[in-house]
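From the pipeline queue, job 12 of 40. The input is one protein chain; the requested action is below.

Action: predict structure.
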Amino acid sequence: MDEMWDFEALGNALRDARVASGRTQAELADAAGVSRGSVMNLEQGTPFRRVPTSLSKVAEALGWPHGRAMAFLGGRRPDRLPTALERQLRSTLLSLPLRVAHELSGGELVDTDVVDLSVYDPQTATHLVIVCKRYAEFSAGETGDSETDFAFWNYMQKAIHAAAEDWGAIRDADDAPAAFLTCSLDTWLFILGEVRKQIEWRMNPAFDRDGDLCEVTLSGRDLAAIVQAMRRLRRSGNAMEATMASLVYEAILDSLQQIQARDQPVHITIEERLLAR
């Protein structure tokens, strides 16, 4: 037996790798095509007069590269084995498109976020994973301002969450079997005009008029179109348009949240009148 061989260090490394892989000694033995006793002797650091033939088989079953087992046996400490999480992350990175993997590998991390889209749409189990990275060089001689970058990220992060919330509202509106909207005639004309202008949705719903008030009968798609148009306008319109769009949008969201069953129609009342424009 070579007195320089460190069977104890080899055994510890083999055991740690097996435990990290989530396998028992018997399962590793089956994968390697050796007996359970062979795996047990190797992990216990049992000294051998010569390198056992089972070692290379066990090392291969653990996914060790060629030479790692002999490095431990020879007293050297090769780079530590990757953890299960590291192996999963590496596998995920390799599965990504090259352009995305390249972006993730460079730059300085600003922040990350995970948006659980099922909060806004129970019909999905999707998560949105966001990685914000800062690149020092924008062009020759120019460098970015980290405070400005973080402020912009903070703005975008809020916008992304708001977009997810908006999507949930659009989905709920589209699923509605019908909707009944009560508002002033001016408000309805405002809504109708913005829907046609913002998303080019040509809707011609029936409505009953009682003086200055009207009750409009909408389909789910009509209601979803209104949500989309008001969402856009409250962020891009002038002060009066944004105020009115927010009023309509929030009234629809409040009504959607009161729905108890998917086949229940939505009743929306907008009490404010559209100011003269």
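Job complete. The beta strands are 108-116, 127-134, 137-139, 142-143, 179-184, 207-210, 213-218, 266-269.
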